[in-house]
Write a structure and sequence with these properties.
The structure holds two protein chains of two kinds. Chain A is an alpha/beta fold. Chain A contains eleven helices and 14 strands. Chain A folds into two domains: 9-218, Rossmann fold; 228-290, 2-Layer Sandwich (Alpha-Beta Plaits). Classes of the chains: A alpha/beta, B alpha/beta.
Amino acid sequence: MTKETEPAIDVEHLTKRYDDVLAVDDVSFTVRMGELFAFVGPNGAGKTTTVEIIDTIRTPTSGTVRLLGMDVTKRKRDILPRIGVLPQGFTSFDRITVTETIQYYSRLFSRRNPDVQGLIDLVNLQDKTKEQFQNLSGGLKQRLGIAVALVNDPEVIFLDEPTTGLDPRARRELWKVLVGLKKKGKTVVLTTHYMEEAELLADTVAIISKGQIIAMGSPEEIIQGTAKYLILTLKSADERAHEIVRAMGFEPVHDDHRNITVNLEHPSDVRKILNALTDAQASFLTLDVRQPSLEAVFLELTREALRDRSTETMPE
Amino acid sequence: MSPDVIGANLIVSLKSFYREKSAVFFTIAFPIILILVFGTIFMNQDDVSFDLHVQDLDQTPSSAQLVKTLELDGRFKIAMVDPAVNATRYAKDKKVNLVLVIPTGYQRALVQRLGLVGGVPSAAFRNSNAAVTVTYIYDASSSSVSPKMQMLQSALGAVNQGMSGEPPFIRSAETSILARKFRFIEFFVPGIIAMSVMTSSLSGAVNMNAELRQKGVIRKLSTTPITHGDWVLSNILYQVILAVISATAILLVSYAVFNVSLRIDAWLPTFIVLEVFAFAGIGMILTRVATEAESAMAAANAIMYPMMFLSGSFFPLEMMPSFLQKIARILPLYYGNEGLRAAMVLADNMTALRCSAIIGVFAAVVFVVGIMTTKWEEGK
């Protein structure tokens, strides 16, 4: 049994090398019990490799990975009944129906009386129970994949890009499922390249680039720790507003002669601009001040990481 | 090994099978079609009679008697050709591969040879040098003309012998090595069973290892408690079930349509199981070499089709050149064919035992190598 205080996942100095390619480079982190942990990163960053080592699909080159207190390289047979995995691009047997697929995977886990209907309800596949896998759309396949990942009522669930390729409505439906899992106290490890998804759902986000974690924490911590500026947007601003903002020394990052967006280093700058616009009786419809999104921070961090790498590798 | 897991896999495999129409066709319908087609073609092979076109230019009672003698031989269906036509032109126009031309003067020469006087032979008038030459007008490009000419030669030889009035010095007696007379279809059925087991096992193993891996199904399965051993064993059981279904269908049609007489005993399931292991093993090794599903299937076809023809599934090995016969004897399907024929047709347990031992050793080696070389986890 796992102790309450023990992390669900404990990764230390994990490295994975494929011949000359270093896919995962000395990565360390922990995932708490009941946490929704999101790996974000560009394609080829090492997200899937890292997760597939943790969920026992792949073996590490070096480092240690403990899942539910067990070494993943030594106790795979003990680990598998306690985890659920949705691999990237989940597929199953083409001519087997939704219900049969869930029953099949339940039997692999020796579940005599699986709650097949409960799982179908959870992922909202009630109308598709007799549909063969090959006839399901991408979104329905992913939802079935999540149901399959839950057949053994796992303590830790790995979902590798569960919403990739889904339309916005299907994506939001899947988010509801993930929130439901979190409420049930499940530990969920999610990989995604949708920043909005990670920002909305995750307790902890790890940004991975070129096999290394370049930032980790709650979405707020990452944003506040990285982006030390505010974004001010004036909508439907008149010509004078444009002139005033520029005259005050703020260079708009976006200006289409109706809407202006500027990055402000100090919160007091908001007051200064507002006062100047009021004094000049410049008109605008709305004023919006917010922190940068996780996506903006992500782009900044990954750009920096790439720049740092190219500097490190530049010949003297 | 988990019986529950193996049972779950079997159910999924069988459901996938009967919902896949092309799989059902190639496993059941295709061998049945082969049996029906080849069985019909060779149904009367033992009572073969060749069409023989005869042009009688002599138009005498003696020449008519010769034609009658040939007809009574039983091996020829005689068709008379108008003496007025050009026999060569006739053969070309009618696409006839052999025309026997009896020349003018046949009866006259026969009378001289036998010394017939008023229809009674007389030694005083016999002319031993009197002879007649019949002409064969034939199409050398026809594959069946050569045996037809040999048969005709032997029939005419018998006529010559009969005219001499002397009993033949060398006579022949026939003793078959088989306990009873068998029909071609009875030799063909075991070959088709062996062939269908090969195709379903080899393509099944390719599907199991390459296609499902490429699709990502194996990757998902590797995150469940199912083991590589469970997976392989359940797939082997599935292949055995398919092979039994296929063999049963072939046998039912063979009995119902051709009224075959075959011995069905423990050798049949023994050879089916050994063949499944052998060809599934080859399939597993193939998917290690050709990892993409399409290339693995192409490689499987490249092995299966030549083996079908070289191993004697469709026709006797003796019809092939000697170097091909040597190649055939290193192919596992040859021992499947020979073993099943020995068991089902000839009731020759020793040959069946020898063939089962050879294919058994082969199966053990390739299956173990196949297991060792195929990956389950993504691993390294």
